[in-house]
Amino acid sequence: MTTVTTPTHDASAQASAADERRAFRRALGHFATGVTVITAQCEGQLAGMTANSFSSVSLDPPLVLWSIDKSSHSLPLFERAEHFAVNVLAADQIDLASRFARSGADKFAGIGWRAGAGGAPCLPGAAATFECRKQARIEAGDHFILLGRVERYECADRDPLLFAHGRFGLAVDYPVIAADPPAPVVPAVPSTDPPTMLGLLWDAFTVMSHDFQSEREALGLVSVSQGRVISLIERFPNASAEAIARKAYISPQGLEDAVQALAEADFLRVEADGSWRLTDAGRAHVARRRQRAVAIEASQLKEFSAAELETATRVLRALGRN
Questions:
Q1: Which one-letter DSSP state was computed for residue 30?
Q2: CA 28 to CA 319: how far, in whole Å?
Q3: Using CA atoms, how far apart are residues 229 and 218, in angstroms rounded to an integer?
Q4: What letter does residue 120 receive in the DSSP assignment?
Q5: I want to staple 255 with a disulfide (CB 3.0 to 4.6 A). Which of 172, 211, 245, 274 is the partner?
C-alpha cells in the first residue's frame, strides 16, 4: 500500500497568521467529529451556534465540554446563561448546521424548539440532546472552554451527522480489510420489502463515484471538497457562498479553505467584491474533469440501452427539481 503524505507544518515557521491558521485548521480537519448546535437562553434572549468541539469529559459525574471563540457575538449570552443545551444533529439536519453557523438573522425562526434546563432551546429531530448546567469557563488561547454538568439527556434512533475535511458526511458500515482470502459469500435471504428509491440512489452514487474519485489527485486536486466547489462555481457563477456550501455539503469554513486552496492553485480568482471567478486554468481543469467523468460514466453505463438511459435521466432530473 502506498502512503501519500503532505509536508509537515511547523507552527513556529515564518508565515502569515491567516495562512498558518488555515493550514492548522485543515490539519485538524483530519479528525472526524459529529456536529452539534449549542444553545442557551438568558433574560429572554436566545443564542445558538454550530460547533464540532463538543466532547465528553466524565461519566461520574456526567461532564461534557465545548469551546467558543472569544470573538463570537454569542459569547456574552453564553457567559451569562447558567445552562446550555448540546443538540447533536442527525444526518438529515445539514440545513440546521448551516443555519446556526451563520450570524445575523433570527436562527430560531420557524423552529419548533422546546425549552430545556434553564430555558436552553432543545431542537426537534436531534440525534441526542444534553441539557447542561454550566460548571466552569476555562481560558484557552483564542477560545474559552465551557464545562457543563449534564442534568438531563435523551437520544433518538437516528444516524448522526458527521464532519471531516471541512465537509459533512454520513456513518456507513466499514468494509472489512484483511490479508486472508475473503470467506465465501452466503446468499442473502431475499427481502419481501421493495428497496427504497433513496437507497438505490445512494448505492448507485457510491459505486459510480468510486472510479472517478480515484483519479482526483491525478487531476490536480487534493480534496473532494475542492472538486465539488470548483465544479459548482463553474455551473453557478452567480451563486452565493451560502448556496455553494449547501450544494457541496460543506461548512462555511470548509468552503473558505477550498476557495483558498483553489486560489493558490491559480484555478480561481477572488474579486475585490468577494465574488469568485474561474481562471483560464480553472476552466481548463473543469473541462478535463468533465471529460474524464463522461468517459468513466460511458464505461459504467454501456450495458444499458438508450431508452433505459433516457428514462433514468428523466426521472433523476424530475427528482432534482423537487
A1: T
A2: 36
A3: 17
A4: -
A5: 245
Helix (H, G, I), strand (E, B) or coil at 116: coil
Do residues 212 and 158 share a domain? Answer: no
Does residue 190 have a cis bond before it (omega within 30 degrees)?
no
Same domain, 152 and 47: yes
134-160 per-position pLDDT tens digit = 999 999 999 999 999 999 999 988 899
Question: 125: phi > 0 → left, psi -120 to 50 → alpha, else beta; which?
Answer: left
How many residues can be counted in the chain?
322
The answer as to whether 6 is a domain residue is no
Pairing of strands 143-155, 63-69: antiparallel
DSSP state of 139: E
- Residue identified by cell 480553472 is 282
Q: How confident is the model at residue 222 (pLDDT cuts 50, 70, 90)?
A: low
Name the E strands within the chain: 33-34, 36-42, 45-51, 55-58, 63-69, 83-88, 114-115, 121-122, 128-140, 143-155, 161-164, 167-170, 268-270, 276-278
Residues 125 and 221 in one domain: no
Q: Following CA atoms 231, 237, 242, 246 in sequence, which dihedral angle do they give, to the nearest 10 degrees? A: -30
> CATH number of the domain that 311 lies in?
1.10.10.10
Report how many domains make up the chain: 2
Domain assignment present for 11 = no
Span 21-50, pLDDT tens digits:
777 877 887 888 999 999 999 999 999 999
Q: Mark whether 214 and 270 lie in a shared domain.
A: yes
Those residues with Cβ within 8 angstroms of residue 16's Cβ, 6 or more apart along the chain or in another chain: none
Q: Which residues pair with 132 in a beta bridge?
A: 84, 150
Please give the single-letter amino acid code of residue 169: G
Mean pLDDT of 229-253: 87
> At which residue does the C-alpha cell 511547523 appear?
10
